[in-house]
Amino acid sequence: MAPALHRQVTARSPDQEEKLLIETSVPKRTTRNHRSDHAFLEILEEDFGISRFALRSSFMGVPAAPKRQAIALCEWAVRVTGGNPGEAGDALRAWAKKHGQGRYDRRLVEAPEITYEHNEHLRRTGRL
């Protein structure tokens, strides 16, 4: 028969219990932004009528734009163009180019071209 393990229990005051309860039940606040994704861009397309191409070009960069910023910019674009979704998409793309956001981010625009040297190596060795 295995020996019984005894755990020592320490008594806590009511103040300690309350503090422990508060610390474990309240989630910590974060400053992390919730970033745009393709599902979110579909919702923006339905709500504002702006094309997916314009939305992807403007908001899906590295990293993707925060959702709050995307909503505010869509509202701005629709308001500035008088409710015309086609022109709103053009306004969003112009904003993204001007501010280097989305697919117009300098890190993407100035990136070196993709090379296929590795594929050539695989062909020479007979693995491709």
Keywords:
flat, 0% strand, mainly alpha, single chain, 7 helices, 128 residues
What features would you describe in this structure?
The structure is a single chain. The protein has 128 residues and is mainly alpha-helical. The protein has a domain at 38-109. Helix content is 56%, strand content 0%. The chain contains 7 helices and no strands. The protein has helices at residues 14-25, 38-48, 52-59, 67-80, 85-99, 106-109, 117-124. It starts with 13 loop residues before the first helix and ends with a helix.
Average pLDDT rating: 81
Number of helical runs? 7
Strand content: under 5%
What's the gyration radius in Å? 26 Å
Low-confidence stretches: none
Bin the helical content.
55-70%
Q: Note the main sheet.
A: none
Distance between the termini: 64 Å
Number of strands: 0
Structural category is: mainly alpha
Shape: flat
Element pattern in H and E: HHHHHHH
How are the SSEs placed, and which strands pair?
Elements: H1 14-25, H2 38-48, H3 52-59, H4 67-80, H5 85-99, H6 106-109, H7 117-124
Question: Briefly, what is this?
Answer:
Helix content is 56%, strand content 0%.
